[in-house]
Specification:
The protein has about 90 residues and is an alpha+beta fold. It has helices spanning about 5, 15-25, 35-45, 75-85, and strands at about 5-10, 25-30, 50-60, 65-70. It is built from four helices and four strands. A hairpin with a 5-residue loop joins strand 3 and strand 4.
Amino acid sequence: MDAYSIIVKPHISEKTMNLIEEKNELAFVVYRESNKKQIKNAFEQLFQESVKNVNTHITSKGIKIAFIKLVNENKAEDVAVRMGVF
C-alpha cells in the first residue's frame, strides 16, 4: 500500500503540539484499516526518520489517530517544521 494512502494528514491540536515538545511524538490521521507496522513503514518512507513506537486511537467519530514516537530527541520538532506545523 502507498505511504500517502496510509498517512492521511497531520492531526494538530493543543495536546499534540505539547506532545511534539515534551515527548518527541507526532500525531497523524491515518487510514482506518492500517496497522501499526504499516504506519511505521509509511512514516519512515515519507520523512526518513526512525520510529521508536506507534500507538493508535480511534475517536468517537471513527477517525484513527496514530501517535508516532521518534528515536532521535527533538526530531519531532524538525519534522513538524518541514510539514509547516510551526
